[in-house]
Structures are given as C-alpha cells and as structure tokens.
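Figure S4 source data
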Amino acid sequence: MGTLLLKSLACVSALACCQALATEDSGTPGPGRWEINTGASLELLDGAGTLALPDTEVNYGIGEALQLTLAMPLVRLREDGARARSGWGSATAGAKWRLLEDEGGMSLALFPRFTWNPASSAARRGLASPGHSLLMPVIVGFSHGGSAVYAELGRNLVQRGPHEWQAGLKATKQCTETFECIAELEHSRVPRDGSQTMASAGGKWRLSDSVIVEGSAGRDIGGGREGRRRLVLYLGLQLLR
C-alpha cells in the first residue's frame, strides 16, 4: 500500500495536493494583487485516505500577465492496519505567464511548476513523493459571455519515478449572478504504468468582492493505474486583495 500511496502523491503533488478541480485557467490576479486559496482536501483510495488541512496556495500578480505561486499542504495519511501519520507534504512553486488574450475570447498561458520535498522524512513516512518534479503545461482558453472552456496539456518530469503526461479539460458557466458552475476531466498517463482519468464537478460562490467559497467532488472513472481514487473532495475559501 505504501508504494500505491506514493504513486498517488506523485500524481497530485504538482496539482496542489488533493483538490478535485485541478485544471488551471489562464487568468492572473492582476498587478500587485493577492489570491489566496485555503481549505481542506480529502482523497480516499482502497484501504487508505489522505487529508490535507490546511491545503493552501498563495498567488501574487506581477503586471497584467504574470502570476507567482507557492503551495504546501499539511497532510494526514491513514492506512488500514496502521497508525495515522501527519506532517508537511510536498511544496510547489510556479509562475503562470499569459501569452495571449484577444478580444474574441481566446487565451494562451504557460504555467511551469516545480515540486520538491522540504523535509526528507516526509517521503519516508509516505506523506510526499520522493525527490522533485517539474510540470510544464500549456493552457488554452475560450470564453464567451458567462461561459468558458479551458484545456491543459503538459509533461511532468519526475526525478525518482517515471515521467508522465497530464491533460485536463474544464468548463465553467456563470449559473447565477454569484455562483459559477464548474465541470472537469483530468487525465494522466505513465508509459508502461497505465493511465488514470478523474471526473469532477463543483462551483464557486462569491460572498463579496474579496471572499469566494469553493467546493468540488470527483472520482476516478477510468484507467488501469494503481491507486484508484474512490472519492476526492475539496472545500475552501478564495481570498482576494
């Protein structure tokens, strides 16, 4: 089971731990503005579960088209027949650069992210994937009115494990004046190790100009890789300033 969990952690480490909605959009906070996402993530596998609380990501805007990102969750892991373990998980730092945003609603962005272990003991205890990894995705978006579609494709280069391809497709719609509906498909593939596909649904409820409640639920629906996720939940706040 330890190997299975490490494979799962390696998959999600570059995706802000366990959030069910992981496909990025091309947006950035804006010059001098902060976007802080913090909440709780739960991932259930057969015979094991991972809770990230807090699951926090901090974003800062530099100019109109650049965003700096830093994330590191506090992870609690529980396996059948073993004592629960907790500690800091993998840390992720990245920079999103929006290359294009035209009047027709098309956008294009790059969002490389580097993930590493701040504490070597976290990998030994199964709380984080060993070594480091570099995810290099391209994000393409199309928006019209209150709806948008985003597609993401990238290569995840893993130091102590096989490299993988990751892809995502996200659709958003402004269902009401204050609530945005979101649906998503996430797919990853490792040569000779199989693939994994997760479907998710959720939304964002804007309480004010600076506070948004986020929630989502997802599960694996296809693929033959080990570490099938039976349920992935996220509930949190997005703070803007």
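Figure S5 source data
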Amino acid sequence: MSAPYGYDAYPNTHHINYSSHSQDDVKVGFDDLIDEYSRPYAANANHQTFAVTAPAMESRGPDHRRGPSFPLGQKVTIAEGTKAMSDDTHDHSTIGAYPPITTGMKDTQPFWRKLIPESLACRLYLLTVLLETIVDLVIEGELYTRLDLTYSSSAASKKMPVYLSIFAMAHVFQFAMAIDAVYARNTLQFLFLTGFNLALLIYSVIQIAEIRQTILSSDDSDGLINVSVSVLTTIIPIVVAVAELAYILLGWKIYHEFGWKVYKFLGADRRIKKMYANFQIYECLVKFDVFFWAGFSVQFIWLVLSKDDWEYYVTCAALPLSVLLLVEGHLAARHENKWMMATFMSGCVGAMVYFVYKLTKVFMYMDDQFANIWKSLVIFSGGAIILLVFTFAMSIVVMQNFGRGLKDALARRNNTYHVRGVSKSHGRAASLNPNRMSID
C-alpha cells in the first residue's frame, strides 16, 4: 500500500549522514544533546528549516505557500512593492529584529499649510474672525480718513484717531489669538476670545455717538466709500454681534473636538489634566496682558505725554520691555524654569504698582489733565490690574506643578500633534509608535 503522496514530494530532512556503522555508533549522549541544543536561538549549523511543498498547496497558487525561513541574525530587506501594499507596516528598514527601529517622520508640509486647521469647525471659526477683521478694519480706515478731512483742534478730534487705532489693533490681536488658539488647541482661549469680542461689541456701540459728534459734516465728507457715517457706525456693531453668535456656536463644537484630542495625549490621569487646565488659563492671562499693557501705553504716550516730559521716554522704553517680560513668563511655564518664573512674578508686582499709580493719578486729575480721556484710561488700567492679579496667582499655581509630569506631556503633544505624518492610503494621521495600535 503506497502513501497518499510519494516520498519524492518531500525534501530530504535528514541533517546527519549515517554511515555503515551500527546504530550504537551514531547515538548521541543525553548530556551532549543538552549541551548542543541548550541555545536553540543561537547560530548553529545543525539548525536548518525547509519549505515543504505539498500538491494541495500548489493547486491553490503561490500565495498559499510557506515562505523561506532565515536565521535570526540575518536581516532581510523588505521589498518596496511589499511595503507599498502593506498599510500596517511600521518597520520600513529590516525584519528579524525586535523591537523595530523607529524612524523619525519629517514634516514636509509648507508653513502656510500648517496654519490651516484640519477641522471644519476650526476653519469656519478662523474664516469668521478674518471676515470680521477685514470688514471692521475697512470701516475704521474710512472713518479715520473722514476724521482727518474734518480735522479740528478740539480735544475730541485728537482722541478719536487713538480710539479708532486701538479698536483696529484689537481686531488684529483677536485674529492672531484665534490662530494661536487653533494651533495650540487651547480650548479655554476660545472662551477668552468670546468674552473679548463681547467687549469689542460694547465698545463699538459706545463709539457711535462719539464718532458722529466728532465728524460734524458726516454726510458731506469725501471718503473712499460713498456711505454716510451713520450707516458705517451702525454696520460695525452688527458685524461684531453676528460674529459673536458664530463664536459661541463654533466654540461649543471646537470644545468637544479638542476635548477628545487633549484626552488622547494626556490620558485619563486627572492630575495631569488639572495641571494642563491651569497651564492653559495662565497662558491666556499672559497673552491678554499684552493687549491691555500695550493699549494703555499707546493712549498715555499719544494723548497725555509730550516729548518734553521725561516720563514720555520712560513709557516708550517700558512698552517693549513689558512685552519681553510676558514672553519670559510664557517660556518659564513651558520649560518649568523656577528662576525665570520668579523673575516674571517680580515683574508682575512692579507692573501692578505702576498701573495702580497711573490709575490713582487719573482719578486725581480727571477734571483737568485727563478730562476727555479718563474713561478709556480707567478701563485699560483697571483691566490690566485685574489681569495682573490673576496672572500672579496662576503663576504660583503653575510653579507648584513644576516637575510633576506636565512638561513631558506637552513634549509628547509637540511630537505627535504638530508633526502630522499622513498615510497615503487613507489620508489619516499615522502612528509614530511602531508598537502601538492607533484608532485615529
């Protein structure tokens, strides 16, 4: 009776050449056998494997055949065609070794492409801020032109260009903060921007009467746009109000999107999440300090001080130094440097003393030196003092969290969020960890 398959179908698997001696001559002792095979994964000439060819597998095609085996020390390069067809291949260099070699991913996207967010809600948010900024800047520029044509020596005519410039600067600042919030995925900054835009809405309503009183011949003034001043001043609060509604709706959507993304790189550790929330609040306070400090300094330099006064040059020098101080506060929290944070907190105390002194001086001379501008100076100096108090308090909280793991979590975010490796097969972000299963 013959076997189902001939012996010719199987290769010769014997790896010992038997001679004509007796069976006892070729027996191997147990100790020798253990010594020889005690290292099964070491390089050994006696260890060989063979691909078995069976007729049943041959009939099903070459895809059902077992591939050749290789020793562990030999690394075989994967074919380029195989790598192109494989979607879950992490090691693009060699196989046969563990763990796989992690290759760094290069971000080949241009800089302008990085500024465009992937989320539709974020794109609509930035588009709304951009449209609001463009429309209001055009109208403010038109009002400034007509104000220049109807120039008078009154105090109201001198202060209106400053107020228009601050309003325009606020829109530019808002657009920059919106881009930063989307790029940094700072959910709390969207809440701050919503409140900031609400303040712009109130300011735009207040300036309607002041602009109409300043530009006496509003309908007869020549300008770039053939529209009356009453219509232009009415359009601004309408645009800001519509944008405010859009910010609330889109901000709610973005809050849920960023909440999941933040959870992915922070994990479920509530301690880290709480520290990150404090860090975000601190960052928002530092950024909005810039606007109130700069706004107060510009008004004080332009409307109050003269070039013959020594305080004029001190204020001009203090403006860039204050911006550098706020940058130092950001770097101190990001890199967890206690000496830089201590310097920043000392600067906050000095700035607080300065603004309290200025606010007291404004109240003392509100009927004389600051008769027509005291309201705006009180708003900016008071806002700066309030922000400084909260900034100083949050700087203490953030400094207490130094060395507790937040710095490492932010470093992981920079490595995974801002380096967007995209797979060509499905267009989604690829995992940077070769031993990790991703559901992105």
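Residues 118-266 form one domain. The radius of gyration is 36 Å.
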